[in-house]
Amino acid sequence: MSFTLITTSEQLTSCLSHLSQQKEIAIDLEFDKNRYRYGFNLCLMQVFTDGECYLIDPLSKELDITYIFPLLENPDIQKISFSFSEDIRLLHHIGCTPKGIYDLSFALSLLDYQPTSLANYLMDILRVDVGKSSQQSNWFNRPLSEDQLAYAASDVLHLFELKKALDIQLEEKGITEWVNQENNAFESADYGDENHNEVLKEKYKNGFNQIEWHVFSGLMLFRDDLAKELDRPPFHVVDRAFLQELVKDHSSIRSWTSRSSIHKKVRNESVRNKVNDILHQKTEEAKELNLSKRKKASQRLSQEEYQQYKRIQQNISEAKNNFFKPIQKLIEHDYGKNARAFILSNRLIGELVGGHFSNFLPYKQELIEQYSRKLDLPYDKYITH
After folding, report:
1. What is the largest CA-CA distance in the chain?
2. Beta strands in the chain (DSSP E)
3. In this structure, are residues 4 and 49 in contact, taking their beta carbons and an 8 Å threshold?
4. Omega of the bond prior to 143 within 30 degrees of 0, cis?
5. Strand, helix or coil at 327?
6. Is the pLDDT of residue 277 over 90?
7. Domains in the chain: boundaries
8. Of 123-127, 166-170, 300-304, 362-366, which gets the smallest average pLDDT?
9. Is the pLDDT of residue 4 over 90?
10. Nearest to residue 275, comparing CAs of 243, 248, 297, 244?
11. Is the pLDDT assigned to residue 82 strictly greater than 70?
């Protein structure tokens, strides 16, 4: 397996000179998302074209990865990828809005392939064995191991061949345009405002009253500040279960300096005192805000809200039974079970019943209209733009 590791500005300039002359490139990213470091971080970019595989190191101090952004944003150069959802979110996160994306996962879904790894697809479709995965390894490590580099390269080396094989199948089924619509919608979405370091999740409220949740929120925000400072994932700094324990029993703070679930760099008296201050400060704040010990942090729906929720669920259930399920059966008969789940998912049904059509692509609309006529179902009753 031949590849070129790009770690300097000079190498990147030469690489970009070659890439900019191509009509299509294969691309993949290796990243870390709160696994070994804090935040959502690009660790490696793999690009393959014209017989050359480049592994571009964004962590190298000798190159600026933003120099490749104009090429990625050039719609005239097609970027062939696989399962690029997290990758495109990361690129938006760091200021790059790629165009010309062709994600093979859409073609695979519409061709009724069961969801699996790229390695399995390559074996099943191309009879290519790319070996064991290093996906879960630490991509911040430098130097990267030979196994890591080989794995990274294997993610892009066969994408052209895979696309060629899938294009033939798409053409035979007459659904090439469906894949194009999916990719156009995919690259047109804006993921720049997504929060990749969500500190407080709704599910964390379970088991807390209002006062306890206020205190817990303060502790979690402090943990996030510590994680940023240490450049470590928050769960590496302080275990969330211990913070939950602290909220219930403030006296647990005494064990701060001896807890193995607390990072050694914050397992000291200074940080312990700050945590203790937060416990008392947030408890007093909660009382001043008239928060309750008796009321749960997770508020129940009001009677009016509950009735509205029930009506929505009844509408969805009625629409499913009388309109969408018969259409789903026909889609499954004609295109397969996996394709049906992708084309007309329960989530999309809920959106359509609720009057939300942003994910209702033209090919899906035409398909459902076609099947509703075939089954003599009232399309306009259940789908009104």
Report:
1. 73
2. 4-6, 24-33, 40-49, 52-56, 78-81, 101-103
3. no
4. yes
5. helix
6. yes
7. 4-188, 202-288, 303-382
8. 300-304
9. yes
10. 243
11. yes
The region, left, alpha or beta by phi > 0 then psi within -120 to 50, assigned to residue 136 is: alpha
Least confident of 77-91, 109-123, 125-139, 142-156: 125-139
Distances (CA, A) of 23 to 48, 80, 309: 12, 11, 50
- pLDDT tens digit string along 187-235? 999 998 899 989 999 999 999 999 999 999 999 999 999 999 999 999 9
Angle, helix 240-248 to helix 269-288, in steps of 10 degrees: 50
Lookup: tokens for 106: 């859409």
As a whole number of angstroms, the distance between CA 68 and CA 58 comes to 10
Domain 4-188 maps to which CATH number in 3.30.420.10, 3.40.50.1000, 3.60.150.10, 3.40.190.10?
Answer: 3.30.420.10
DSSP per-residue codes, 213-275 = HHHHHHHHHHHHHHHHHHTS-HHHHB-HHHHHHHHH-GGGGGGGGG-TTB-TTT-SHHHHHHH
The pLDDT value recorded for residue 132 is: 64
Using CA of residue 354, residue 355, residue 356, residue 360, what is the dihedral sign?
Answer: positive
Pairwise CA distance, residues 113 & 179, whole Å:
14
For residue 154, which amino acid is it?
A: S
Length of the chain: 385
